Inverse folding.
């Protein structure tokens, strides 16, 4: 039988202890850990004396050992605390406070001859909790093979949930469901919940490293159990030696802004392992992309090939003339011909198509002061990609291509891969889930190899973000949701509520490469987008990323000079970020301060309901007047008609304490630029 020992445990059963308890620094959140009458370890959470997470089980199933399920007692506990502030090299805010109390509890099994322990580390912040399991090395030197977690999240009060399905063919790329908590089936995280008393919760995980991604499966009522993403090996997680699981996290807030202005997952990740990453510069970029997405051009060779040397130079010239640091070029490399979707066997990540000269284009970009954003689509075939990874990243590093967008397009997240388990070597092609342990290992390998060459990574069809950008700051953005490209494929494919819902769900996990700035508001064959022109600007404030795209054709961007001026000037790196107005799924208005100046920017997005907001300017310096430029929905603007292009402009002067009343159109938005008056 496999034995699991904590470093501080004794082979003899220690005397059982009473329930262990820990509170947040402000005392509002209290967490209890104990065992029930059958010896099942559990935790429960109260806030302001009210139960929000009822008794929820802890434990594991293994493929080759007895379950860690019952017959445990508490035999050890210790309490510590932390209060420090650390600096992000880039982000929504420059400084992050890590203020928490910590409880470490050891549960020991009472079965005769068993010395197994279950160790849980619980951190309680003023705005949430995080806990993880810590495994010592098995005494017999064998691997730990986890079949499933038994971690539960039993939500005590009634409420509403916003969620997308897990375990389905299209990864994370679904519109969000809004249902009673009891209406959830199997959900990806983050899953957002608003309780009947207005308390807001978000369930997620932090520091997902060498482990399977966690889904939430509703058992019954409002009780959920962790479900790990499957693996071809049978065991969902295989680990050697001592290890920690990812943190299981619950953000807890009074309102929507408290949910958003929350750094829980970042604080549960390890500090920066890369050292100086000043070579990465937050910025905006354009690209040879919308042409393929909207079916004007192709990734493959032929008369409509998008990535040609001539077109790349045209886009580089536009970027240089309009202050864009980067230009994304997709479809430049061999392998796109034929059926590459879920295939990827023929990709080369160093060899160009005949009508595209990578070295010539890179040299032209350098001459113009523009940086190429590289692209590596794998078609889900990570075995092919990993064999070329070192050479591909070395080539980009040598050419000064310091950001790469990767892609993993395949149904069901189906991955063609060799198994990484040293005891189960690869024989042929194996299906792996997009967020299983194998893919988690792969994505980190790409990020680490890129860092060696001073390249930042922006994966599409990724594993969800869990705050690892703190540890690896070259992991700058991801997709991991239903992005802007869906707007090109059908009328109102992303409904007007999609963008404001993302703010309170997907965006709680980290930056998203949503590709805003489609000022023409049309996709393939002229299909309309569920957005006004002002909303396309508001997306730059609502959907955060340190690499922000202006996704439209360059001729369309040029045709809207006043909107292009805002896109040119809006930063991609912030000193402070505040949600000054918003409700989950309805609307979101942010105030963000530029990290490199005293300028503030205000803006965001609306759903299908017309509304009038009064915004209070209590965030600006009280010793300063500001000149404010406004881009807002025109009086007739609505996403439902051609009036979606109706936009109005305004200039005003404000001081702290002033307010501004503005109409948000159906599917509308807002953008404002505040500049100090000298």
């Amino acid at each position: 039988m496999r034995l699991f020992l904590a470093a501080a445990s004794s082979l003899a059963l220690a005397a059982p202890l009473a329930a262990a308890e820990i509170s947040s620094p402000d005392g509002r959140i209290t967490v209890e850990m104990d065992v029930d009458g059958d010896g099942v370890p559990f935790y429960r959470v109260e806030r302001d004396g009210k139960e929000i997470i009822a008794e929820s089980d802890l434990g594991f199933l293994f493929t080759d050992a007895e379950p860690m399920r019952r017959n445990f007692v508490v035999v050890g506990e210790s309490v510590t605390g932390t209060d420090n502030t650390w600096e992000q090299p880039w982000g929504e805010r420059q400084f992050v406070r890590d203020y928490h109390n910590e409880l470490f509890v050891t549960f020991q099994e009472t079965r005769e001859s068993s010395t197994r322990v279950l160790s849980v580390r619980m951190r309680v912040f003023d705005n949430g909790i995080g806990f993880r399991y810590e495994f010592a090395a098995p005494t017999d030197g064998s691997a730990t093979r986890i079949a499933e977690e038994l971690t539960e999240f039993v939500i005590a009060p009634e409420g509403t949930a916003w969620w997308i399905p897990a375990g389905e063919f299209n990864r994370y790329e679904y519109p969000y469901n809004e249902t009673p908590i009891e209406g959830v089936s199997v959900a990806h995280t983050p899953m957002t919940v608003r309780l009947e008393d207005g308390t807001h919760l978000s369930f997620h995980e932090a520091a997902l490293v060498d482990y399977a991604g966690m889904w939430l499966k509703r058992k019954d009522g409002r009780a959920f159990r962790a479900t790990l993403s499957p693996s071809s090996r049978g065991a969902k997680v295989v680990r050697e030696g001592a290890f920690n699981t990812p943190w299981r996290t619950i953000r807890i807030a009074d309102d929507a802004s408290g949910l958003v202005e929350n750094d829980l997952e970042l604080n549960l990740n390890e500090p920066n392992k890369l050292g100086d990453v000043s070579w990465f510069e937050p910025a905006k970029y354009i690209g040879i992309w919308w042409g393929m997405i909207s079916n004007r051009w192709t990734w493959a060779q032929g008369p409509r090939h998008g990535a040609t040397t001539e077109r790349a130079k045209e886009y580089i010239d536009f970027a240089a003339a309009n202050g864009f640091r980067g230009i994304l070029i997709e479809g430049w490399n061999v392998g796109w011909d034929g059926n590459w979707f879920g295939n990827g066997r023929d990709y080369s990540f160093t060899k160009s198509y005949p009508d595209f000269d990578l070295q010539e284009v890179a040299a032209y970009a350098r001459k113009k002061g523009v940086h190429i954003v590289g692209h590596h689509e794998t078609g889900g075939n990570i075995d092919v990609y990993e064999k070329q990874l070192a050479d591909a990243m070395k080539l980009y590093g040598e050419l000064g291509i310091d950001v790469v967008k990767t892609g993993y397009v395949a149904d069901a997240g189906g991955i063609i891969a060799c198994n990484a388990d040293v005891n189960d070597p690869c024989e042929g092609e194996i299906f792996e889930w997009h967020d299983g342990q194998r893919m988690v290992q792969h994505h980190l390998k790409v990020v680490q190899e890129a860092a060696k060459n001073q390249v930042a990574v922006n994966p599409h069809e990724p594993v969800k973000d869990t705050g690892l950008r703190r540890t690896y700051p070259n992991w700058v953005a991801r997709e991991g949701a239903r992005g802007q490209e869906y707007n090109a494929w059908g009328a109102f494919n992303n409904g007007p509520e999609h963008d404001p819902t993302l703010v309170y769900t997907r965006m709680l996990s980290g930056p998203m490469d949503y590709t805003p700035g489609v000022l023409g508001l049309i996709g393939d064959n002229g299909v309309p987008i569920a957005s006004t022109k002002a909303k396309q600007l508001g997306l730059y404030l609502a959907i955060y990323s340190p690499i922000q795209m202006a996704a439209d054709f360059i001729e369309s961007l040029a045709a809207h000079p006043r909107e292009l001026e805002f896109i040119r000037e809006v930063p991609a790196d912030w000193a402070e970020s505040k949600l000054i107005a918003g409700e989950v799924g309805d609307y979101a208005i942010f105030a963000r301060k530029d990290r490199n100046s005293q300028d503030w920017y205000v803006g965001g997005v609306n759903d299908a309901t017309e509304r009038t907001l009064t915004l209070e300017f209590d965030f600006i310096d009280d010793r300063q007047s500001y000149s404010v430029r406004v881009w807002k929905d025109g009086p007739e603007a609505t996403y439902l008609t051609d009036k979606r292009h109706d936009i109005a402009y305004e200039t005003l002067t404000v001081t702290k304490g002033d307010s501004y009343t503005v109409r948000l159109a159906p599917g509308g938005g807002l953008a404002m630029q505040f500049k100090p008056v000298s």
